[in-house]
Specification:
mainly alpha
Length: about 120
């Protein structure tokens, strides 16, 4: 993410900003789950599915950004930049909502078992 931001390439659009937000969301969700595992494992388990989706989005965005950086140095295909930008600006934006589901969704998730 830092390398994307530092590149300051206009064709990257808002990729650095979006990926930075996603990494921050993943970091917050990870800290929450770590604490929840120690206090109440059911709460942590309730957030497992959105956490895995969040992790996959963030990892995918970062790997695509790495390919875009390589392409910008002439080491890859120019389509890698377009794909990474699309992914970051259209798909990775779900990271904040997934983080919220991890951190705040346990009560409604666990309530399903009672219903």
């Amino acid at each position: 993410v830092d390398d994307v931001r530092a590149s300051n390439r206009p064709e990257f659009g808002r990729m650095g900003e979006r990926l930075g937000d996603a990494v921050a969301a993943l970091s917050e969700a990870s800290r929450f789950l770590g604490a929840a595992l120690a206090k109440n494992p059911d709460v942590a388990l309730a957030g497992a599915t959105p956490y895995l989706r969040l992790f996959g989005l963030v990892a995918g965005g970062c790997y695509l950004a790495r390919a875009a950086l390589a392409a910008s140095r002439g080491e890859g295909d120019a389509r890698d930049v377009a794909l990474a930008r699309f992914f970051a600006e259209n798909l990775v934006t779900a990271a904040r909502g997934l983080k919220d589901a991890v951190v705040d969704g346990a009560e409604s998730t666990l309530g399903l078992a009672l219903a």
